[in-house]
Design goal:
The protein contains nine helices and four strands. The protein is an alpha+beta fold.
Length: 345
């Protein structure tokens, strides 16, 4: 093999190796650029995550302020401005201020500059103040001047939450005022009711005194003068007057609401010893009608088909009622026990 041939082969081999190396260099360059892009994206993602963590910590810190200080708006505002300073991207040059109803709450070293981000605090749909975040020097331009779009979302969210918190506090204070007013009204109402009860008692005592001193003596005298067939009416009149002091009919109608007015009047007559015939004559109705009333009364008093005398029941009911009132215990109509069975009238 000649020398020229060997040189030519050697040249081709070297050219092939050179092309292989060039391809490898291109591949390594691509890998380097890809690695750089990956590192850059990783750094961006890590930074974004750190910013999101700071925002979440800010929201959590705000919730803690609300829980710790309750209704102290001033302490919540002051705690919030300190939270804002450590939450924004360039925390080392950040200061903050909250303005609300003519008052200002500032972070340490506060200074208003032209690099600011502001959100309005609205209470019941009206502007009541602002949240303001400032950078103390110029920084690179991002989404909103030197501020991130996420920081805009955060400051707007905090302003909205403050507005709702202030509304809730105002409503709770108003409710407390109304509760105090209602308690005072209840006290006054109880005093009025007590006074009314006392006046009713005085009136009842006055009526009783007048009946005892004026009317009953006249009826006693009249009872001895009228014919025997009319004495039962005088006796009934006396019994009804006595009900002004111990009102049987009102208690009966209250405890047995299904009784009609006519049935209550007949109950009063039966209690005072009038017979069916006498009741029929006084009310100008037939004896059969009175009997039907008696059946309805027994049914409504829950003593139908029971061996209980209606006269005895009504008188015992009245005496039990008086005893229950004396002992301040609730009345249980129809719960009386009878040791002796009276003949049915």
């Amino acid at each position: 093999m000649s020398t020229a041939t060997r040189i030519d082969r050697r040249q081709k081999y070297l050219d092939s190796e050179l092309n292989t190396l060039r391809k490898r260099v291109l591949e390594l360059e691509k890998e380097r650029r890809l690695q750089f892009e990956i590192e850059t994206e990783k750094s961006r993602i890590e930074h974004t995550l750190r910013e999101r963590v700071k925002e979440l910590n800010c929201l959590y810190g705000f919730a803690e302020l609300v829980e710790r200080h309750g209704h102290s708006i001033e302490k919540i505002f002051q705690g919030l401005v300190e939270l804002l300073c450590i939450t924004w991207r360039y925390s080392e040059i950040t200061c903050a201020r909250v303005k609300f109803e003519g008052k200002q709450y500032r972070s340490l070293g506060f200074k208003a500059t032209r690099w600011k981000q502001i959100a309005e605090i609205k209470v019941f749909d009206k502007k009541a103040g602002t949240i303001e975040v400032y950078y103390l020097k110029q920084m690179p331009t991002l989404d909103e001047g030197p501020f991130l779009k996420e920081e805009r979302v955060l400051i707007d969210s905090l302003a909205w939450r403050l507005g709702r918190l202030i509304e809730r506090i105002h409503v709770e204070k108003q409710l407390e005022v109304e509760r105090v007013s209602l308690r005072n009204m209840n006290v006054a109402l109880r005093e009025v009711l007590t006074k009314v009860q006392d006046e009713k008692k005085e009136i009842a005592e006055a009526i009783q005194a007048n009946v005892d001193k004026i009317i009953l003596p006249v009826l006693h005298a009249l009872e001895s003068e009228v014919p025997n067939e009319l004495k039962k009416y005088v006796i009934l009149l006396k019994a009804n007057l006595e009900q002004l002091v111990s009102p049987f009919t009102s208690r009966l109608s209250k405890d047995f609401t299904s009784l009609t007015p006519a049935e209550i009047q007949i109950c009063n007559m039966i209690k005072n010893g009038l017979t069916t015939k006498e009741i029929a004559q006084l009310r100008h109705i037939s004896i059969a009608t009175v009997n039907r009333h008696r059946e309805h009364i027994r049914k409504k008093l829950n003593i139908a088909n029971k061996k209980i005398n209606l006269v005895t029941y009504l008188n015992t009911y009245m005496s039990k009622e008086t005893e229950q009132n004396h002992n301040s215990l609730p009345v249980q109509p129809g719960s009386f026990t009878y040791k002796r069975v009276e003949p049915h009238i």
